[in-house]
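Amino acid chain
________________
===
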Amino acid sequence: MNKNQLVENIATKTGVTKRDVESVVNGFLEEVTTALKNEEKVQFVGFGTFETRERSSRTGRNPQTGEAIEIPASTVPAFRPGNKLKEAVK
């Protein structure tokens, strides 16, 4: 499912216009992104937690030449599913 399909499904189920649903979805995504940029967790009890994690630097290989390269440390977004979501997907 992509964002447009999500907006359409929510609009159909709730009777709210697609424009309003899209505005809410975009606002939600912006708030989660802003929180993660500020290294805050975004937690929805039962659904899951969006957070950032630190990746340490490591040695990799250039796939074309086989040459060893150093991959720098970075911060990456992560999602940890909650118990209700895990149970629903089983």
Observations:
- Strands lie at 42-44, 48-55, 58-61, 68-71, 74-81.
- DSSP finds three helices and five strands in the chain.
- The chain has a mean pLDDT of 96.
- The chain has one domain: 3-89.
